[in-house]
């Protein structure tokens, strides 16, 4: 199930119903994921897509124009790109959820002396508590990159039981040319097909 995210006030909905063939032993019978809004320089309208796993334990986001660059040929604001997703997750009463793990992938072409950074921030609407992780890559590097944000059981922030709270996921790519300002360095979190995507793993618990 995959729909391209349009502009703000999106009508994307991924509905998962039971029974699933390989569902985890303690997950809700159904999960509905609605992308309420998406905005940011890394995800212009129509360049992000969401798909949900049929076992109701994860969902993925795929980007097609998420690229930060610095050095030769880049503009003054190209060194930093970001994307904020506002997601409504619906599920049966008696459950709540948090994000246990996020797996990010992309491609980096970093010159000697340049660095690239990926950052993910997760928090629920109206809650000050959240989680943030940062990963830095140093040049020279011209290869695929991967970063995993993994929370311990005590670190997972759950939505309040019995309340509807949207999940906000804010990601960022940043490239610093460093001593390689006369060359171009870039870092992407995108894919020309669905083989490369960001995967978010739910952590479900009963209220």
List keywords for this structure.
14 strands, single chain, disordered N terminus, 207 residues, 8-stranded antiparallel beta sheet, mainly beta
Record the SSE blueprint:
Blueprint: E1 2-4, E2 12-17, E3 30-39, E4 48-52, E5 58-63, E6 67-71, E7 80-90, E8 95-110, E9 115-124, E10 130-138, E11 141-150, E12 167-176, E13 184-188, E14 198-206
Antiparallel strand pairs: 1-4, 2-3, 3-7, 4-5, 5-14, 6-13, 7-12, 8-11, 8-13, 8-14, 9-10, 9-12
Q: Care to describe what's here?
A:
The structure is a single chain. The protein is mainly beta and 207 residues long. It is built from no helices and 14 strands. The strands form 2 sheets. Strands 1, 4, 5, 6, 8, 11, 13 and 14 form an 8-stranded antiparallel β-sheet that branches. Strands 2-3-7-12-9-10 form a 6-stranded antiparallel β-sheet, with no helix packed on it. The protein is elongated and about 55 Å long.
